[in-house]
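Let us work through a complete example step by step.
Step 1: write down the sequence.
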Amino acid sequence: MTFHDLMNDFPPTSDKLVTLANWRTRPFNSWSFHNVRRLLPTANIPASGHGVPLDSSLEDIMQTEFEGLNGELTTLHRALKTTHTDALVVMRRGRITAEWYANGMNATTPHIVFSVSKSICGALGGILTDRGLLDPEDLVVDYIPELKASVYGDCTVRHLLDMVVGIRFIEDYDDPDGDVIRYRYAVGWDPVPHGRETLDQRRFLASMRPDGNKHGETFHYVSTNTDVLGWVYERACDQPLAEIISEYLWIPLGAERDAYITVDSRNAMRAAGGICVTPRDLARFGEMIRQRGIANGQQVVPGWWIDDINEADTSAAWAKGDFAELFPGGSYRSKWYQIDRTVGVLCALGIHGQWIYIHPEAELVAIRMASEATPLDPEYAKCWRRGFDAIADQFL
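Step 2: predict the structure and record it as tokens.
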């Protein structure tokens, strides 16, 4: 079954119906990931209505070769067609070098970016800090006193930004009875079984407990940290997160289309993974990061915040953390991955194959949106890292 078979009848037959119970599984995610609004409640993230056009300088890079899955040599074109890719945009020096779309996607179709949302929120933190609305060294409870009894009662905003909270939570997407499934019930991403009570998102965050490790010492990837960060932003600005992203980031960026974000039953916004954006607007965002926070001649994210992301040495915490084997010698700062410190390659990653890849020496930004079957497949991640590196090598 392909994307074209789904949700086409009136009504769709049961085998072609995309629901809250199957929307993150193949083949249903090939439709759902760019139709999230038809499955979940959302809040709009307005653009200005006057998007800044992107210039093109197209290059034939589709025959770029690299080591694909299973150690076999592949090309960019073949990899795009065989790894459930929905969209690819490659930019060099701010111009579109290549675009590719599948499964009903186009340049202006919003697609969920999952944990790339975290990196968007990480950049937003720099803006709010620069404007004096936020201090990363403040305690979380300075903004949200309701979290005093939780693991967040004695950690700082910086601990949230760098994923170094000593929290008892296992981010296992496939455990049917684990922390993640309870989290999904709370944020409204999965149907709650009949007779089972669940917390809403904010009460779920307040239920998080420590694991005995000291804050700040170990990279421990837990999505709830970013939802708390989004809540901190709301308290700091006295605005909903969607409005904050729009006012301070999306409009100044020159985004062409509105984005949106999923919300729970009590209007709590999923900062950790609920943002949906168009491919070209995500590329605009990545290019702004590459340009040290500048878009359209305007400083959107402070340059010193981007410098800190690139230069801060968090490698010791990374080496003890969850993804050390995936990106050896890497680091993580303000919701961004530094996956190759020798050349400064910066990335944002989301489950099911979402990427922003920034290679400063090649002056390259690549974004990928996908509907991979497995939430986090290390072999797919390594394959696409090699693919992006190969594209960058062509321009060095």
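Step 3: interpret the result. The mean pLDDT is 96.
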